[in-house]
Specification:
This protein has ten helices and twelve strands. With 306 residues, it is α+β, with helices and mostly antiparallel strands. The chain folds into two domains: 137 residues, Gcn5-related N-acetyltransferase (GNAT) (Aminopeptidase); 137 residues, Aminopeptidase (3-Layer(aba) Sandwich), CATH 3.40.630.30.
């Protein structure tokens, strides 16, 4: 008699050949790994990235077989406070059309609600149309595009714009408060109270960990960005930009380019060749800007609100 259950994956499950075999059906770059290499990679990502791997397994008296898996991350952001983001969700190709994907997705929704998230965000490659159909049937919609920059090439800066890293908020709290109005142009739901704002941004940067940048000219803040070093199965190690905004009254001065150039410099120092970010589907003008900076859209971000 067999039993199919949803469980978090421990070291033993990670080393089962079926775990790597199923994950490779979605991420072909895993083909080069052995089961032990794969288990060590997932364990490392879970330790440094606040990530988790779970799935559906079939247990019999003689063996355990993995039928489906999901790789997801929980972290703090300015966009939705607690972000529950699913990077990978895959059902074994021999086990599809049995409701396993629906069951696993519902489990993840329950997990997201338990941790206080207001939604889930699910990443999906542009060409994975079968997955798109499944997500639409489950009530998810495309809310943003995932942009990626694969070639780190510095572009010309406006020399009058200076970029400062103000992540040490004990020393730079005044600058952080000065940036509040500009930040709220992008994230209007951020606190209006100065100390609440400071505490929220500090918490995001400390737990991320993440860095905060401001663009400044003659002691006037013109724009800002928050970024972090991230690691996923698809992108490997990369810079992820959470937020990038320039003052609405100071557009077309090269402020966004200067902030992106700073992140490109950091990427080169760290031996990273990729920068990624998200942008809401409605932000057409911003998309044009990212394309001019060398980014291209390579993912859809599906969302369901609770």
């Amino acid at each position: 008699m067999s039993q199919e259950i949803i469980v978090p994956f421990d070291d033993d499950l990670l080393r089962l050949p079926t775990c790597l075999t199923i994950h490779t059906q979605l991420r072909s770059n895993l083909n080069q790994l052995t089961s032990n290499d794969y288990a060590e990679l997932i364990q490392k990502l879970c330790q440094i990235n606040q990530s988790h791997l779970c799935g559906i397994v079939r247990k019999t008296q003689s063996e355990i077989v993995i039928l489906a898996l999901a790789f997801y991350r929980i972290h703090l952001t300015t966009f939705d406070t607690i972000r529950f983001e699913i990077h990978d969700l895959v059902v074994d190709k021999n086990q599809r059309n049995r409701g396993l994907g629906t069951r696993l997705l519902q489990y993840l929704i329950d997990q997201a609600k338990q941790c206080g998230a207001l939604s889930i965000v699910l990443q999906c490659d542009l060409t994975n149309v079968n997955a798109h159909r499944f997500f639409f049937r489950q009530g998810l919609t495309i809310t943003s595009f995932g942009f990626c920059l694969n070639e780190i090439e510095l572009l010309e800066n406006n020399d009058s714009i200076k970029i400062l890293d103000i992540t040490d908020f004990e020393e730079n709290e005044k600058l952080l408060i000065q940036s509040q109005d500009i930040f709220r142009q992008l994230r209007p739901h951020l606190p209006t109270h100065h100390q609440e704002f400071v505490n929220q941004i500090r918490n995001i940067c400390q737990t991320g960990p993440a860095r905060m940048l401001i663009a400044i000219n003659n002691n006037e803040i013109l724009g800002l960005a928050i970024y972090r070093i991230s690691h996923t199965i698809k992108y490997s190690r990369h810079i992820y930009c959470d937020d990038l905004v320039t003052d609405a009254n100071k557009r077309s001065l090269g402020i966004g380019r200067a902030l992106i150039n700073y992140m490109k410099n950091e990427a080169q120092k760290l031996g990273i060749n990729r920068i990624a970010l998200d942008s809401g589907c409605q932000r057409g003008r911003t998309h044009k800007f990212y394309h001019r900076q060398g980014f291209h859209i390579d993912q859809f971000k599906f969302t369901i609100l609770f």
